[in-house]
Amino acid sequence: MPLRLRFWDRKDEIKYLKAYLRGVPNSILFIYGPKSSGKSTLMKQVIKKLSPNREKLLQKYGILYYDFRSKLIRSSQSIIDLFFRIGEGEDPVVKSGVKIDENTKIAIKEGKIEPFELIEERLRESGRKNIIILDELQKLKGIYLEGSSENGRLLDELFNFFVRITKVEHLAHVIVMTSDTFFVEELYSNSSLANCAEYYLVDFFSDDIAKSVLVSERLNEVEASYVVSWCGGVPWFLERVLSKKKVLGIREAIKSLYRMVKGEVLEKLGRLWRGSEALAKKDGEVLVKVVMGSGVDMLLKDRESVERLASAEILFYDPLSGTARPQTRLHERAIKEILGL
User: What is the pLDDT of residue 5?
Assistant: First the structure.
């Protein structure tokens, strides 16, 4: 069984999010960050800390948590299957959807009940502070891009509804978590979210915090510094090294992890560049700029390449700063080796 690091040093993030959720709903909050930065774990900790015990939490807050990792998303999938549930049998505090019965489900499908109006009605009736959380939003990208289908513009309609229940009616906080920042930018533009949404970055641990984590897990200072020099503050990487150190030793554990990351980067670049030398040249030039720290042009010639490489989770793009970087320190090493830098 893999070792799990205890929740570590997210005091600033927890303080910010608790204050945000205790205030009056007035905007959509996009929590973004690179893959495996700990966004979902952080949000679950924040929920636990909203009230001192579960009973008070249940009395004070109504929480709808949509984890799209747990759903098989098809482009033709009904909004009913995504945002509603039938029956009981789940956590009384955190719900996976608005509860409806079979008759209501049929009525929604037949167009006799408008689904967003039903959700708004339930929020008004709850008598509690409502929180709606969408985790791994990018899983809905297939639905969004199929613009000609019945659900093709589902997310535009959904986010316009979120603007209504946050900024206009103040009925619920809406938190959206994703690592696909270009997708968020597209939604922001197409759903007219200007002055209706905020961004909040949840990044990897800093090097100092990562070293503290490793020392608390009984590595010495030299070992901790070596691991961080390779892995940075990626929680999943730190867990992997710690879980394998007894069998492989720290250096071999890191080598194994690096080989895996390099293999993934090679495979993804192979798929992106298959049959196109021009694309390989263009993206390759952007990768050189990123890893050498010379900066990219996100307004003109480099944007398409950055978006392509970020969608493949080779680069991470921060929409607030307008900068791109390798997904992790291991990705940076892999890119340099692959490009011969």
Answer: 56
Which helix (H) or strand (E) segment is 177 a member of? strand 172-178
Question: What residue type is assigned to position 181 of the chain?
Answer: T
Task: Report d(CA 276, CA 4) in Å as an integer.
Answer: 42
The secondary structure element, H or E, covering residue 209 is helix 207-216
Tokens of 8: 């570590």
Amino acid at 308: R
Cα–Cα dist 131/58, whole Å: 12
Domains in the chain (CATH in brackets) are: 11-201 (3.40.50.300), 207-339 (1.10.10.10)
d(CA 71, CA 242): 31
CB crowding 195-219: b at 16 or more within 10 Å, else e: ebbeebbbebbeeeebbebbeebeb
Residue 305 exposed, middle or buried by CB count within 10 Å (0-12, 13-18, 19+): buried
Structural Rg of the chain based on CA atoms: 22
- Residue-wise pLDDT tens digits, 104-119: 888 888 889 888 899 9
d(CA 38, CA 202): 7
Rounded Cα–Cα distance for residues 3 and 7 (Å): 13
The pLDDT score that the predictor gives to residue 76 is 46
Task: Give the global pTM.
Answer: 0.87
